[in-house]
Amino acid sequence: MALVPWTYNNPRIQRSNCREQTYTFCNKNVTVYQDTEKEINVHNNTAFKMWDGSFLLAKYLENKCLGDRTNSFLKKKNCIELGAGCGLVGIVTWLLGANVTLTDMDTVVSFTENCVAKNIGHLTEEHAELNANINVMELTWGKKDLDDSRFCAYDIILGSDIVYSPDIKLNEMLISTMESLWKEDTVFILSYKPRSLGENIFFDMLSERNFATHTIPSTQHPKEFSGSDYSIFHITR
Ligand SMILES: C[S@@+](CC[C@H](N)C(=O)[O-])C[C@H]1O[C@@H](n2cnc3c(N)ncnc32)[C@H](O)[C@@H]1O
What we know:
InterPro entries: Methyltransf_16, SAM-dependent_MTases_sf. The chain is an alpha/beta fold.
């Protein structure tokens, strides 16, 4: 299958209709699998297609690692992805040397597992140097017990396009989940697009809970997204 170079809002490509799309990250092919049978809207089945924010975040992480002479930004870091869906961000983070746990809610996690397994099998066979850990676990926001030993505190928490709901309870549950995975120097890296749905209450709630949100200048965004309305945030506490 031909590799399709990414451009944001490419009028010639309806990405959501493609069952499989293969991209190159770290000189390796990563295939994104979508469930095109499902009806997807902002309230239902959001996991089953790849959102633009995941390509943006994956490229941003790749570029950041390429520019990191000390090679320490992700290498051997413990990372967790929340709301991983098709799993692109988690897979690329693993390719960049981090130990990664991808998570999503119970109705989605087997889909995410499948997407990851289909990539990891051939990548580990072809590239013996890929020896970091990668796994997939169910994690529904707000449902993680504080003493849940399946999880630890992470160096980096990742989220692409997971802030889009105005539901106060859901945003609270997302922030509680972040808190339960947090340690002193954790950074939460988030790609976000404003959708005027009232979802920006998430950021007010973050500052009420003593998180600080740092905006990454658009000059540091991947070139494929120049002029897009996406933001990338580093959130610290
Ligand atoms: C818009 S999709 C983004 C998926 C993926 N990160 C991407 O960018 O392609 C939102 C994701 O958040 C997950 N999600 C929504 N509510 C959740 C909850 N309460 N707990 C865990 N995950 C949730 C969905 O299942 C979905 O995977």
